[in-house]
């Protein structure tokens, strides 16, 4: 197996949190993020992505940020531990297909 193939198979658990002031870009951003993963809080999404999907997501995010807005992306490896308190919606990640 080639070194690049191994890297491509590596999955990241990605947490994306955002604070977008205007409704239209916020709604469009949440639609985009829904195509990658699942909503875990009102302004937070989790996704399991390979390197190519991760790079595509990062490239797409810039268009949703205005002067007063922020988007934060946390990249962890797929086996990173997540501890949840309160309402627990166990996120089961299947392969995500991005169209």
Can you describe this structure?
The protein is α+β, with helices and mostly antiparallel strands. The chain has one domain (3-77): 2-Layer Sandwich (Alpha-Beta Plaits). It has three helices and four strands. Strands 2-3-1-4 form a four-stranded antiparallel sheet. A hairpin with a 2-residue loop joins strand 2 and strand 3 (44-50). InterPro entries: CRISPR_associated_Cas2 (IPR021127), Virulence_VapD/CRISPR_Cas2 (IPR019199). Its cofactor is Mg(2+).
CATH topology: Alpha-Beta Plaits
Radius of gyration: 14 Å
Helix count? 3
Q: Give the topology string: H per helix, E per strand.
A: HEHEEHE
Class from secondary-structure proportions? alpha+beta
C-alpha geometry: globular
State the distance separating the first and last CA atoms. Answer: 28 Å
Query: What is the typical, i.e. mean, pLDDT?
Result: 83
- Assembly state (oligomeric): single chain
Q: How many domains, as an integer?
A: 1
Family: Belongs to the CRISPR-associated endoribonuclease Cas2 protein family.
Subunit structure: Homodimer, forms a heterotetramer with a Cas1 homodimer.
EC number: 3.1.-.-
Organism: Lachnoanaerobaculum umeaense
Using brief descriptors, characterize the structure shown.
99 residues; alpha+beta; 4 strands; 32% helix
Structure, briefly:
Helix content is 32%, strand content 28%. It has 99 residues and is of the alpha+beta class.
List the SSEs and their pairings.
Elements: H1 3-9, E1 11-19, H2 23-36, E2 38-41, E3 44-50, H3 51-61, E4 70-77
Antiparallel strand pairs: 1-3, 1-4, 2-3
């Amino acid at each position: 197996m080639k070194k690049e193939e191994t890297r491509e198979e590596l999955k990241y658990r990605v947490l994306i949190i955002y604070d977008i002031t205007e409704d239209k870009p916020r709604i469009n951003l949440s639609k985009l993020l829904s195509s990658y993963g699942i909503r875990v809080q009102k302004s937070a999404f989790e996704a399991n992505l390979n390197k190519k999907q991760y790079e595509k997501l990062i490239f797409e995010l810039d268009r949703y940020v205005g002067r007063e807005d922020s988007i934060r992306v946390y990249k962890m490896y797929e086996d990173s531990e997540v501890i949840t308190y309160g309402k627990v919606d166990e996120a089961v990640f299947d392969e995500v297909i991005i169209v």
